[in-house]
Amino acid sequence: MKYNKAIDHMGTLELNARRIRTKNYVQQTVLACVGVAGILAVALIAPNVFQALPHLTGNKYKFGYRARTAAGRLAQKGYVRFVERRGMKYVEITDQGRRVLELEQQKKSLIGRIRKRWDGRWRMIIFDIPEKRSNIRKRLRSMMQELGFLRLQDSVWVFPYDCEEVVALVKAELQVGKDVLYVIAEQIENDKPIKRHFNLK
Fold first, then answer.
1. Where in the chain is the domain with CATH 3.30.70.240?
2. What is each CA distance from 63 to 33, 59, 60, 130, 161, in whole angstroms?
3. Tell me, what's the pLDDT at 61?
4. pTM for this prediction
5. Per-residue pLDDT tens over the stretch 142-173
6. Secondary structure of the chain: what % helix, strand, coil (to 5)?
7. What's the fold here for domain 116-197?
8. Within 13 Å and on the Cβ side, how many CA atoms surround 194?
């Protein structure tokens, strides 16, 4: 009986995780669609997203609701805003939304660099963010993990490839310019575990 409950619980967790991933995919795609156009009629959100994510299935009306809900969440985050022109409702990307889009593009670019030959230098992020901005510190650590950085210490992270542009975007997004340093190091003591982590020779 306990085993069956555990299996049911695991199934529920997996289903919830899948829903969260789908929600994030839809939000990211809505932002990308609006970003390409700059401004997009609300009525055209669902068709554009559906075309970009053809693997998503389900009732088209339900999907349209999900796409509009995603746009609403993006507006709450400040990535887009709703405007009305000549009686029609539109979604317009904000400067913050464009920074987020650019950051996503830089993330994909970092993945491409991993396949290139390493130049033997380490890129390090060192930060000292005041306790009163602890929420920003947590977000920064989370973003470092997402980007593939390895944590050496709580406030020291390392990556083997050039990432200055993406770090600049992160600093702009979190408004931590003076609290975060980007360092290029020729050598790190006892770096064998770090090389193993990044599959470097």
1. 116-197
2. 16, 6, 5, 43, 40
3. 58
4. 0.60
5. 888 888 899 998 899 999 999 888 888 888 88
6. 60, 15, 20
7. Alpha-Beta Plaits (3.30.70)
8. 20
